[in-house]
Write a structure and sequence with these properties.
Layout: E1 2-7, H1 13-22, E2 26-32, H2 36-46, E3 50-52, H3 55-61, E4 66-69, H4 73-85, E5 89-92, H5 100-113, E6 117-119, H6 127-138, E7 141-152, E8 155-167, E9 171-180
């Protein structure tokens, strides 16, 4: 059984903790947040047995195979180095680091420690999402009025809108209340 810890317990970790729960052979055994009450909320929701407000202490006390760093980009570098120094594999949110030099240092530290470093994928670069963007940019979809837009930070989680799809012979297919989950930059 792989044992992991979540570093950062704000908004996104609730989705990732749920995903970790679905996997066989993996257990999240600890959660860290600088505000321990937030770590407790995540731990209670997902039955994570230990919480910390000191990441270094967590890495010393827990027998971890990996950490999942789900924090602000400015903290990716120090948390990655901290985990690598303890011989713990790292999964890190994108963007990897605030600079190329810090990203290179993260990679070097993980290589030197013999641990793996994974950076979360950004779905907007996947082929189906790029094809949707291309279709939107080409005018294939004619956008109507936005009915509802739910946001959190820089992310648009759901855009519900009326749209039409152009069909051969000057016909259009109307779609009402079409939900599309995208990041705001996709729509630019």
């Amino acid at each position: 059984m792989l044992k992991g810890a979540i570093i950062g317990t704000g908004f996104w970790p609730h989705y990732q903790a749920a995903a970790w729960k679905e996997l066989q052979g993996v257990e999240v055994v600890a959660a860290y947040n600088r505000t321990i009450s937030k770590a407790r909320v995540l731990a209670k929701k997902f039955a994570i047995p230990a919480v910390y407000d000191d990441a270094q202490l967590m890495l010393e006390k827990e027998q971890l195979d990996f950490v999942d760093i789900i924090t602000d980009v400015a903290t990716h570098h120090p948390f990655t180095l901290m985990a690598a120094q303890k011989g713990v594999n790292v999964i890190c949110q994108k963007p990897m680091a605030p600079s190329v030099d810090l990203a290179a240092n993260m990679l070097e530290a993980c290589n030197k420690a013999g641990v793996m470093l994974f950076i979360h994928e950004n779905f907007r670069w996947q082929a189906p999402v790029r094809a949707l963007k291309k279709a939107m940019d080409s005018g294939f979809f004619k956008r109507g009025k936005t009915i509802r837009k739910v946001t959190k930070g820089n992310y648009v989680r759901e855009v519900v809108f009326n749209c039409s799809i152009k069909l051969p012979g000057d016909k259009e297919l109307s779609i009402l209340n079409a939900p599309i989950l995208v990041r705001h930059k996709l729509l630019r």
